[in-house]
Design brief:
Chain lengths: 315, 498
């Protein structure tokens, strides 16, 4: 019984870390626990968080998607360009998300049909999609977007940032998808043992393709939120976001070997990263040190997780 | 006395793997180490080989108290282990593997390829193997890999060699070869600890035997003084009827018809499986038995011929089509192909047939739990709950989950590829009973096995394969000699192990 208590405590570690961080920052600076600051943290993390939800699904299948940052840029550009071209805003947003879906679908098809390792495929599309963004925009950002578009990334609904609502809906849907649908179950099965899943007659190609398409779709959505938050479509948007998304999943207990990961864990992971960076800003810590801290936390989190698994592995 | 272990204890995160391990081995002795899965055999040996540290107890090496903290330290003292799963580097050649970790003569890390190969050749010919030291290890059969591991141990100048179930993946001929080597090594004064499950092979190799049960040594003594039944009783702690015998049923309608199926070197296979039948499929390693199962299950589609289930031609192109037609494969290697170890028992059980507990892609989790609990009872899977992770169960219980998921899927044709590999005596009996129950429920079973006594016990008739073709069919009563005669290669009398 003692063991299971200890195990349970250790499983809660990411949550405890987040809570401690929250309390520590509240004590350390009066500027932290204010509506304005918290809303800004929420807006900043929402983008990474939405991407990280898709990444969670991908990582559960034992794959990886390095192209999400580039997809974010492509979607943001397509969406904002559509608005500039006079399309109604909802349609433009749908177009941007659709662009993300197409990018993700392409990733999935290359992985399953050409049987290329996901790391390689998405390393390739990380470059290629970014190139598409640069070509389409000729390297120039899209400016002067109608003010109404800022609602998605900067507006409030019932006093809560709208992007946080978007994230909440995505998180609930993703949680349901992982826990209560065939797609979710098969994702765990494929990540845990692809061979066994194949032998059991699981349509692996179909489900893997769907998984990357969903990751692309969520990156597209994140791209629209980001574009709305900054009120510009940038071909260079989302540089390095893929690594933050992966970090959030991994800090939250996802395993790059596949078969493990959860929405709750990923949310906590993303908020830990968000609070660290916000806290450092408020406390006037050199942003270069922020990077060092986040890197150290990733390694510590994964290192601890491995230790926990070794310790409680029965021989 | 070469090695003496007294009261060895070891636990992993609250789970006691060893509570009282005792073992003594002298020079030139072949000492069998037996016990059921999870009895602590491997843990005890890994402590000797420096892979684990003991929590308590005494270990004497040539009379001196020692603790090997790393495998390299054990190796330097003359302890080597031949592992069940090969621990070789597949992309290096045989010579490089034999001397891995000790290849440098010069200080700057220069590897002299020529001299490595020469030294390897010497070791190999000394042991009388037929291996080319420049062959890539990835190209070797499991048997070939074990020979390389043996060469490695001998090249180290080891004085104690631990074999961890050396014959579990070998054919009869290869097994005899391993016995010859074991005898040869012991003649040279090397002490040998030989972990095994297989009761049949004991007499021909061992001097003394130590039996572990639930982490403690329960018996140690000379092998002659022990009957087979006594040995089993020591292992399982109660008496078990180890000579299972099945009463065949009158065969029913044909379920699986295989007509002239060919693929690769598997050529022109035809046979019929009827409801209620258990048909054995015998033959040597590499005769094409596993390959045939892969064809029938759609893993490698047939190039010619027809596969029919219940009179309908299905010719599966992938496992999905085979599964849909009611064919189930219980693969030889549960851990890599049969089970998702990180998933729960329930999730493994429903994997082939999630549609049954879902609608429109959405799962009905309570229906899933009900189904899982039901099959858990029916197949007597020992676990704390259907939510337990499959990876936490013993080999025998894992095997039951693999069977249960197909039963739940409603499969009627079962292909069992080496169903008893790596599971203990008591669990074997349960697997046989399980197969019998399936047959009585109207399933048709094809059982691939390299264990001739098991084929004789369980199968209603035995098909034998040789070099990719069916070489014959034996009705009851058949003998091991009958099977061997049909299985032995036609042209070359001596089988090469490579």
């Amino acid at each position: 019984m003692q063991k299971s208590l200890a195990q349970r405590l250790q499983r809660l570690l990411p949550f405890v870390t987040l809570a401690l961080l929250f309390v520590a920052l509240t004590i350390a600076t009066p500027h932290f626990l204010t509506a304005v600051n918290l809303a800004s943290v929420a807006r900043q993390t929402a983008v990474i968080n939405i991407m990280a939800l898709g990444m969670t699904l991908v990582i559960i299948t034992g794959g990886i998607d390095l192209s999400v940052g580039s997809i974010l840029a492509v979607s943001g550009l397509f969406g904002t360009m559509a608005i500039k071209a006079g399309q109604p805003i909802p349609l433009a947003i749908a177009l941007g998300i659709g662009a993300g879906l197409v990018c993700g679908l392409l990733n999935g098809l290359m992985i399953t049909m050409l049987r290329i390792n996901p790391f390689i495929v998405t390393l390739g599309t990380l470059e290629a999609y970014r190139g598409v963004a640069l070509v389409v925009s000729k390297g120039l950002p899209v400016h002067e977007i109608p003010e109404r578009f800022s609602f998605l990334g900067d507006g409030n609904l019932l006093g809560i940032p709208f992007s946080l609502w978007v994230l909440a809906v995505c998180a609930v849907v993703m949680h349901f998808l992982l826990e209560n649908t065939k797609l979710g179950r098969y994702s765990f099965a494929i990540g845990s043992n692809q061979n066994a899943a194949y032998y059991a007659g699981v349509p692996i190609k179909f489900h893997l393709t769907a998984v990357y398409a969903i990751a692309g779709l969520l990156s597209g959505l994140a791209g629209m939120v980001e574009a709305s938050r900054l009120m510009t479509g940038q071909p260079t948007a989302g540089l390095g976001y893929e690594l933050q998304a992966i970090a959030a999943v991994v800090i939250g207990g996802g395993s790059l070997q596949g078969g493990e990961g959860s929405v709750i864990g990923t949310l906590i992971g993303a908020f830990i990263i968000g609070l660290l960076s916000n806290g450092s800003d408020l406390l006037g810590i050199n942003p270069y040190w922020q990077q060092v801290t986040i890197g150290a936390i990733i390694i510590a989190a994964v290192g601890f997780d491995e230790y926990r698994k070794r310790k409680f592995a029965t021989a | 006395m070469l090695l003496s272990l007294q009261g060895i204890r070891k636990s992993f995160g609250g789970v006691q793997a060893l509570s009282n391990g005792n073992l003594e081995v002298s020079e030139g002795e072949v000492h069998l180490l037996m016990g059921e899965n999870g009895a602590g055999k491997s843990t005890l040996m890994k402590i000797v080989a420096g892979m684990y540290r003991r929590d308590a107890g005494e270990m004497l090496w040539r009379g001196q108290p020692v603790s090997f903290t790393r495998p390299a330290e054990a190796a330097a003292n003359g302890v080597a282990m031949v592992h069940q799963e090969s621990l070789l580097a597949p992309h290096l050649n045989i010579a490089e593997n034999i001397f891995l970790g000790r290849e440098t003569d010069s200080k700057i890390g220069w590897v002299r390829r020529g001299s490595l190969v020469e030294q390897a050749r010497r070791v190999i010919s000394e042991l009388g193997f037929q291996l080319d030291p420049e062959t890539m290890v990835a190209k070797l059969s499991p048997a070939g890999k074990q020979l390389v591991e043996i060469c490695r141990a001998v090249a180290l100048g080891s004085s104690l060699l631990i074999f961890d179930e050396p014959t579990s993946s070998l054919s009869e001929t290869e097994t005899k070869e391993v016995f010859r080597i074991v005898k040869e090594l012991s003649r040279r004064g090397i002490g040998i600890i030989y972990i095994t499950h297989r009761l049949e092979e004991l007499r021909s190799v061992g001097d003394r035997v130590t039996v572990l049960r639930d982490g403690a040594t329960v018996h140690t003594g000379p092998l002659e003084a022990l009957s087979r039944d006594q040995l089993i009783q020591h292992m399982v702690g109660r008496s078990v009827n180890a000579t299972y015998h099945r009463e065949p049923l009158p065969p029913g309608e044909p379920l699986l018809e295989v007509k002239g199926v060919s693929r690769g070197f598997v050529r022109d296979i035809s046979f019929v499986l009827r409801a209620g039948e258990i048909v054995g499929l015998g033959g040597l390693m590499g005769a094409g038995r596993t390959e045939l199962c892969r064809v029938l299950f759609g893993l490698d589609p047939a190039e010619a011929g027809a596969v029919e289930v219940g009179g309908r031609s299905i010719n599966p192109k992938n496992p999905r089509q085979a599964v849909a037609a009611g064919i189930a494969l219980i693969p030889e290697d549960r851990q890599t192909a049969g089970l998702a170890l990180k998933l729960s028992i329930a999730h493994n059980l429903t994997m082939p047939d999630l549609g049954r507990v879902s609608s429109m892609g959405i799962l009905n989790k309570s229906a899933e739990m009900v189904l899982a609990s039901d099959y858990r009872e029916r197949l007597r899977i020992r676990c704390s709950s259907p939510r337990q992770l499959a990876g936490r169960l013993s080999g025998g219980n894992q095997q039951k989950i693999v069977i249960a998921k197909w039963v739940a899927r409603g499969a009627r044709v079962f292909l069992f590829d080496e169903p008893t590999r790596g599971i203990d005596v008591a669990a074997k009996q349960e697997v046989f009973e399980q197969m019998d129950r399936l047959a009585r429920g109207g399933a048709a079973i094809l059982m691939v096995s390299s264990e001739l006594p098991e084929l004789l016990q369980v199968a209603d008739r035995v098909l034998v394969m040789r070099e990719g073709r069916l070489s014959g069919e034996l009705p009851r009563p058949m003998t091991q000699e009958d099977i061997m005669r049909l299985a032995a290669p036609l042209h070359s009398a001596a089988e090469t192990v490579q």
